[in-house]
Specification:
Blueprint (H helix, E strand, L loop, with lengths): L1 H6 L7 H8 L4 H13 L5 H17 L8
Helix pairs in contact: 2-3
């Protein structure tokens, strides 16, 4: 659910706008559940950032096959 918010269109990536995009009919409850998840997150920030970097960096440095040469 949190990933859906980050992956969705929109500039603001704070909890309430994400909740509004992902569950517009239940903004309050979606906001509360996401806020609780993030506030009580059992993962370490360093481990999470490392995992994201491992998935994202290869995409950023991979040659673009569609690029015009």
């Amino acid at each position: 659910m949190v990933y859906q918010g980050f992956d969705a269109a929109g500039e603001r990536k704070s909890v309430e706008p994400m909740a509004a995009r992902v569950a517009p009919e239940q903004v309050y409850s979606a906001h509360q559940s996401r806020h609780r998840l993030l506030a009580r997150a059992p993962w370490s920030d360093e481990a999470m950032l490392s995992a994201v970097a491992r998935r994202v960096l290869p995409e950023l440095i991979a040659p673009d096959d569609d690029a015009v040469h």
